[in-house]
Amino acid sequence: MLESLVCPVTHATLAYDAERQELVSKAAGLAFPIRGGIPIMLVDEARRLD
């Protein structure tokens, strides 16, 4: 399933961070949370990468 998801901002591929339960877009500098097994692909819900 992860292969079919892309960043909603850059359309780049995402990396899965199992420890934080996030999908990371290095291109956009954002990490999208996974809650209850469902990826939340909203920019407003994403965490900015430092």
Give a structural overview:
It contains no helices and 5 strands. Helix content is 0%, strand content 34%. Strands 1, 2, 3, 4 and 5 form a 5-stranded antiparallel sheet that branches. The chain is globular, with a radius of gyration of 10 Å. The termini are far apart. The protein is mostly beta strands and 50 residues long.
Helical stretch count?
A: 0
Low-confidence runs (pLDDT<50, min 5 residues)?
none
Provide the residue-averaged pLDDT.
95
Structural class: mainly beta
Measured as a percent range, the helix fraction is under 10%
Order of helices and strands: EEEEE
Strand content: 25-35%
Q: Please outline the major beta sheet.
A: 5 strands, antiparallel
> Got a strand count?
5
Quick one: overall form?
Answer: globular
Distance between the termini: 27 Å
Using only CA atoms, what is the Rg?
Answer: 10 Å
Summarize the structure.
This protein is mostly beta strands. Helix content is 0%, strand content 34%. It has strands at residues 15-17, 22-25, 30-35, 38-39, 47-48.
